[in-house]
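Pipeline run #58 for the internal structure catalog. This entry was flagged by the ingest filter as a single-chain record with no existing model, so it goes straight to prediction. Upstream metadata was stripped on purpose; only the residue string is passed forward. Reviewer on rotation: M.T. Logging verbosity set to normal.
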Amino acid sequence: MRPDTPAENVDHTAEAARLERTAGLYPEDAEALLLRAAAHLELSGDRPAAAALYDRLLASDTELESPHLVRALKASNLWEYGHEAEARAIIDGIRAAAPRDPASWVVVAESLEAHDELEQAHEMFTEAVRLLLTDVPEPPAAAHPLLFGRHRVRRMLGAAHDEWDALADTVHSLPITLDELHDPKRVWSLGSENPAELEAEISRLRAEVGAYRMALSRPFPVAVLHWPADELTELLEAYPSLAIEYPSHEEHLATIETALRELASSGTPNLGIVPGTVPSYEAFAASEGTTPDDAYLLPQYATTLAARGRAMPWPPQRSAPCWCGSGRPYGECHGA
């Protein structure tokens, strides 16, 4: 269940509890699962419980993949239920740490924006853009919300377009321009009695919602299983009967790219790749009451990993490292 699902369609409290139980079963995925649980708790209105989950993650002995993102989400949540001073202190700490993760910058900047701190939000967006995108040939998809958020705040402030705004226009792919989406006067259109104005505004809002949904993480992609070379060697040594599925590692990699391209051409959205490991696969087989040499288990294993947040979205940007682990840009490797 996606955390942005409307409350009338899901019991957010029950979903948060289910994710917490799943995190207990898969401690290696606890960070991603508990962050999603906290999102559900925030949507349910239980912000103190969400804060407790953020604190649980930050106090864990396990090293977090995105500690600054957890702190940013905690700050945003605290501010929403009256702990402004603590939230501001956390935001100042994140800014001083200058993380390389775009998501943490987006969360704190949008939190400032939501509380009408437009000048500070603009400073935060601008600092992040300069830190992460200066001399970068192609902005990564994860950094697009920084450019869009900065553009939006500058429109609210009445600032003239600059080079970063021009870059935001370049990476923006929706039919309605950013200037239209971020026009401060749009809010007045919602109070209009003119049906044409209302219809135009609804169209703009739909496009904006689409942009936000595209920027959200994708916890349940249609995922294809990828065995790194050493893991595939170990898998076939332990279970030789699976060699019929994987004649060679090179063919395995080519099959992944071909399968994903066919899915994409058929209109299947939300595609991803999940890396497998032999110990994890053996544990999954045991939990299913079968043996790892059962080839029918492989797609189920991939789906389970994807549901636990282990999938990488496909395709990568052409300048990003290829999903196969070669270290080469995707556009020069499997994306060629």
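catalog note: The mean pLDDT is 87.
catalog note: Residues 172 and 230 are 39 Å apart (CA to CA).
status: ready for reviewer M.T.
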